[in-house]
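Let us practice reading a record.
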Amino acid sequence: AQQRVRTPSPGVLPPPAPPAVQGQVDASRRTAIVTAAQKVAPAVVSVNVVRRETVQPRSMWEGFFVTPGTREVEGLGSGFVIREDGLILTNEHVVRGATQVVVTIADGRQLEAEVIGVDDVTDLALLRVKADSALAVVTMGSSSDLLIGEWVVAIGNPFGFLLSNPEPAVTAGVVSGLGRNIIQNAGERGFYLDMIQTDASINPGNSGGPLVNALGHVIGVNSSIISQSGGSEGLGFAIPINRARKVAADLLASHRVRRAWVGLDVEPADSNRWGHSTRVRIAHIATGSPAAAAGLRSGAIVLSAAGRPVRTALDWEGRLLDSRVGEPLEVVVSEGNSPRTVQLVPRDLPSMAAERVRALDGFELITLTAGIRAERGLDSDHGAVIVALPDDARDLGMREGDLIIEINRNPVRTAEDAATQLRRSSGRGPVRVIFERAGQYASISFYVS
């Protein structure tokens, strides 16, 4: 029999799928990725900041149009709630230099945030907001058992207030690599060590948001990308959550991070035809350090630390970055053809334990010692290390870590020497300071008011 095919009238839409079919489709759509995103998204926040920046002409031509001074600029990033009473984890570079921080939570409320502490070495910051009720929190996972190829979700607020709704954006991908060491371009923050690589899109504004596994557990803090265009190109990097948890605990307890020190420096042991090293050896042992107490000697090859191989100097720094003061660090070295395992018990950095001397308002110094010299790789054997300084001095070009060795042609032996000379110079004309930075010597002149 001939069947007649009925066509719908023009302008009439087809009916929706039957309920039974719709239910089957809905079940297949609700994947582990969807569930993970829904579980974490309520605890993800937008971080909006206002900071002051110094404006200086970059050329004589710009000098005709640009007036030197400061201006207020806005920035944005992401973060996530780690405790229901308002503790929030984000990136240090998101809140760097901020004069005001406002957090927008998932329901649209905007809350003033206090910066509890920052750590520029790990690029992490801890904030606190006061809310009328308990906030949604993330579930912390572990970054010690990640699998290359497993599904992950990056969550954040890439556009901040440019979007009318406060709900975060979600991108999916996989763990592309582990233990990545990234060297930033000149003028940027330096190194990112032992990072998680992912191809989940991390766009500007996503910094500080969580990287989540398929269980809905946070396993990293989205932090940086490698990009030629400025947008995501599938090369995103996150700080392992085990490190972030340790840093957050230190910032909450004392507003600073206790950095492990063993008094051991390494250098490339050999290199291939492209100049890449595959092994490192001990270059220097600080007198009286944990490494010296363990009997380690210069020239020994470092094979592994904390149960993980060490192939480059950055590998070693990454293992040390995740070590804790007072907790043994297992290091395997090779002297000749015989491997040896030693237990190093890290101490606080010598510069952290040193007495601080206040020289001027916001200016703090410590006396250079043998331990601090070894810690910071300085050449000079005397001077005062800058450990804190005001924005005015920073604008002049001075930095934390600079070693002052001479003021107005007078040698500086201790922090007290430098403080006394700086105080005496107040209102008496220009001050000329000679200092060491990264093995180079420079001078700067300024007035003390």
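A brief commentary: The first strand starts at residue 44 and ends at 55.
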